[in-house]
Amino acid sequence: MRARDLLDDAERTLIDSPSVDHWQRGRERIEAEDLLEYVLGEFPEDDDEVPAAARRRFLRLVARRATGEPVPQILGYLEFRGLRLGVRRSVFMPRDSSEWLVEQAVRRLRRRSGRPVAVDLATGAGPVALAVAREVPGAEVYGTDLTSEAVSLARENARKLRIPARFVRGDLFAALPPRLVGGVDVITFHPPYLGRREIRELPDEIRHFEPLTSLTDQSPTGMFLIERAAIESEEWLRPGGWLLVEVAPDRSRAVASLLRRCGLRDVRSTKDTTSHLDVSRVVVGRR
Asked: How many domains does the chain contain in total?
């Protein structure tokens, strides 16, 4: 069977699946291509014949994807801002949209004199902390998470990539060294911002394959942890330091209002104008 025909069949299978979130045009073809490249070890030409054993393995992976299982979880890794990160089902999967969160953090850290300090809350697999640490050499970077599974995976990613970010387990700021109080330049946060009743509305590939704690803080509005982070950041940020919060576009106005009520200044919502996907905002505020 030729690669083109195999991919055509796989694309139709994914398009027809009710468990796949069809939010991006052409996504199903791209995912089929990623799976075939993974099986073959290289991307084939359209007319290349795919060996029977490889074809069977590919079809098994496509069947898994059709149940809603995300491609990175099938492969065991994903690419984030040039970094190959290991992923697990028990840990929130990094999103491409968080590259804009990294961009906003890096810009501010590079303006700081001396050795800047960055903290990434709810770090998950560590994508933001690791990208910031790589792109701002010499910065002191911490990632915190409530679960041991996330911290273990983030540390594993850091070791493999040889990036000197530090990961600690704790509730928001609780596990950070006390010496950082009043000395953090940038805090990044991609919070679980869905209200508890919104979970039922999510597509299968998120609802069934992401840990619940990474999606909602179990409050009615999903704003509880964001408010806590905004209030507690006052103690940890140095004067002029920034809190950066990544949320969906429809939450940005409410989050900006909350940050202002909590005393942060220069609050605004920023958007990645270089991307054709309008899926997130980073709301920024300064102590």
From this structure: 2
* 148: Cα within 13 Å, side-chain hemisphere: 0
pLDDT tens by residue, 97-150: 999 999 999 999 999 888 999 999 999 999 999 999 999 999 999 999 999 999
Radius of gyration of the chain (CA): 20
Residue 104 tokens read as 């906003």
Same domain, 45 and 10: yes
Instruction: Tell whether 239 and 97 lie within a shared domain.
Output: yes
Do 244 and 165 sit in the same domain of this protein? yes
In angstroms, how far apart are the furthest CA atoms of the chain?
64
Does some domain include residue 81? no
Do β-strands 117-121 and 237-247 pair in parallel, antiparallel, or remain unpaired? unpaired
| Local structure of residue 43 (DSSP, 8 states) | P
The dihedral built from the CA positions of residue 88, 90, 91 and 96, taken in this order, carries a sign that is positive
